[in-house]
Amino acid sequence: MATHIILVNFTDQGVKNVKTSPDRVESFTKLAGELGVKVESAFYTVGSFDIVLVVDGTDESVATAVLNAAATGNVRSQTMRAFSVDQMREIVSGVS
User: Fold this and answer.
1) Could you tell me where the beta strands, DSSP code E, fall in 1-96?
2) What is the pLDDT of residues 41-86, one digit of tens each?
3) CB of 69 within 8 A of CB of 50?
4) pLDDT surpasses 90 at 91
């Protein structure tokens, strides 16, 4: 399993439906779980992004979950693969 950080913005449609946003996060969490993705945390934020998710899953399963969320038309997202400090130590151990 790999950690991914998903940065989410509401579309115009998503803002119009903002009252149901918490329900949509719960639906995403359930769908992600069915795909083998665990939502470790979900935060609503103020600033450049509306929601930040931290999830664990394969690249393929995370991509599938994110595409399903985007297909609703309520959100757009950016997904980043994340590495722990220990993982980064291993990665940089081969750097000369």
Assistant:
1) 2-10, 38-44, 51-57, 75-82
2) 999 999 999 999 999 999 999 999 999 999 999 999 999 999 999 9
3) no
4) yes
Residue 9, judged by CB atoms within 10 A of its CB (0-12, 13-18, 19+), counts as middle
Q: What's the start-to-end Cα distance of the chain, in Å?
A: 28
| Cβ-based neighbours of 34, under 8 Å, separated by 6 or more | none
Mean pLDDT of the chain: 97
Give the per-residue pLDDT at 25: 98
Quick check: 72 and 11 in contact, CB under 8 A?
no
What CATH fold (topology level) applies to the domain 2-92? Alpha-Beta Plaits (3.30.70)
The enclosing H or E element of 29 equals helix 21-34
